[in-house]
Design brief:
The protein has a two-stranded antiparallel sheet. Helices cover 66% and strands 11% of the residues. By secondary structure, it is mainly α. The protein is rod-shaped. Helix 1 packs antiparallel against helix 2. Strand 1 and strand 2 form a beta hairpin. The chain is built from 2 helices and 2 strands.
Length: 71
């Protein structure tokens, strides 16, 4: 059971990291702000936060499954 939780945690952390990276650096922007002096592109922050939550949750699950508990 612990091995299955460890594998699921690692998979969730990996998926969350990929989603976060793609939302920040690869995928198209969700908004463009044009001012007199600058043009800024903003990433999709909902995907960034969702991916970060998956990453942290998967990491916590994997660490929880990998550590021994005192009896």
């Amino acid at each position: 059971m612990k091995v299955l939780l460890l594998i699921i945690g690692i998979m969730l952390a990996t998926i969350g990291g990929v989603i976060t990276y793609r939302a920040l650096y690869v995928d198209a922007t969700s908004a463009v702000i044009i001012t007199d002096t600058d043009i800024r592109e903003l990433p999709n922050y909902a995907r960034v936060v969702g991916g970060a939550l998956l990453f942290v949750g998967g990491t916590a699950l994997a660490l929880f499954a990998a550590t021994r508990k005192p009896k």
